[in-house]
Fold this sequence. Notes:
Elements: E1 8-11, H1 21-36, E2 40-43, H2 55-68, H3 91-103, E3 107-110, H4 114-126, H5 142-150, E4 156-159, E5 166-171, E6 175-180, E7 188-190, H6 198-208, E8 213-217, H7 224-234, E9 240-244, E10 247-248, H8 264-270, H9 274-282, H10 297-303, E11 314-315, H11 318-330, H12 334-347, H13 357-370, H14 380-388, H15 397-402, H16 406-419, H17 427-441, H18 446-457, H19 465-476, H20 487-497
Parallel strand pairs: 1-2, 8-9, 10-11
Antiparallel strand pairs: 3-4, 4-7, 5-6
The protein binds glutamic acid (GLU).
Amino acid sequence: MTNSDKIRVRFAPSPTGFIHVGNARTALFNWLLARQKGGVFVLRVEDTDLERSKEEYERNLIEDLHWLGLDWDEGPDIGGEFGPYRQSERLGFYHQYARELLEKGQAYYCFCPQEELEKEREEALAQGRSPVYSGRCRNILLKEAQKRLETGEQAAIRLKVPEEGLVRFTDLVRGEVEFDLKLIGDPIIVRSNGMPAYNFSVVIDDALMHITHVIRGEDHISNTPRQILLYQAFDWTLPVFAHLSMVMGQDNTRLSKRHGATSIDQFRREGVLPQALCNYLSFLGWSPPEGKEVLTLEELVKLFDLSRVNRSAAIFDYEKLYWLNRQHIKLLPAQKKLELALPYLQAAGLVGKDITSDEEQWLSQAVELLLEGVDKFSDLPQKFSLIFDFKPESLDEEAKDIISSAAARQVLRAFVEKTSGLTDFNYDLFARITGEIKKETGIKGRDLYHPLRVMLTARASGLELDKFIPLIEDGAKLNFPRRIKSSLERIREFARLMHLESERQPV
Ligand code: GLU
């Protein structure tokens, strides 16, 4: 049915929940192929499950896809030549094509009550047979069926499928695939409530929308023979099929909440960058040819190769995602880092709603320094506690250990003494005073600096002091909701708590 050589692909989510990584990977692969080949990417909303579909989920999925950086050429929100793009608005098409099959004798009305079908199904399963429809209504003539319908009887419509034979197709990812018709039976194409079955609406839409490549999750592979039978019934050209392997957790079970975040919305709230997520999603079944791993969407468009997508299970590796996220964070300009960090710092109550330009400048530096090594933006407030929290009363064991030696106490006492008259402090003073202590005591290196780090930060590790001291000195002059203590305040608080002053010799 295609009327041009253009590649046309689609992403066809059901708006029944938040979009998860498996679906997003499907969307991405379709999008990459369309963008790479100058093709068309269609968004089609499959909302025929009236009970589970929600408008809110459609809005969310559109938002999530936009956030990922994906756009589409035709879709429910922007229309297009082959719309509407919401299945609930396409019922007329499904009924029209079902009628055509009925009239050609390729489909029939099935009056079997649901309970009976259920019973047959259970019996088959109990006997170890595949539950295939018996074909009881197959020979009811259309005229007779229509009369029964007029009297108010309810009926589904089934496709008449040959009883024997094979359905074969070449899957771009999985290679040659075949299904035995004996195991398929006559599938329902329209339910008795008038709603199309997934296999039917998807074929009608893919055909009417001139879809050339159907790229979707492997969970649909057993639907594909039923869909192929429909293409054959209409004498329509088959699209190319590519079924992407399922996304699994490290333990080889389907990725689920147990493994961690799974929805795009969750990763977004965690503060994973969309470019990092797309970069990582592209590795679920594909790998770049040259080994360069940190790739932008533009680079992915250039490098992506559907024929290199492999069929082995795609294991979701959170560590790898966060590693990529760190790499993409590094590539951001400072302004962008701040913009992305602010909502997290505000939500944690560290920073107010409105910030002055001085605060902005300080925050920009702080974010630049503290973002180093952070997996995702939501971890940033924790990192900021190095600056905002000073709790010498609750040192951890490592920090206690560092200040417990006689040499450490000597360094600390000397430092407290040399800073006792000061009203101002900066890193130059720190360097000068530590130089003096080194000269006077002979203590140097780790033995000199580690106790001082513990005194200034109440922690055993953190930023380099040449970065930390200027940061708290400047920060202490600002009016954040939670005040930052200056170096001198910290030194005095620490000295009081550790009784460093009382041991001081009178000068
Ligand atoms: N609505 C189906 C799903 O979300 C689409 C499957 C397909 O791409 O054909 O799984």
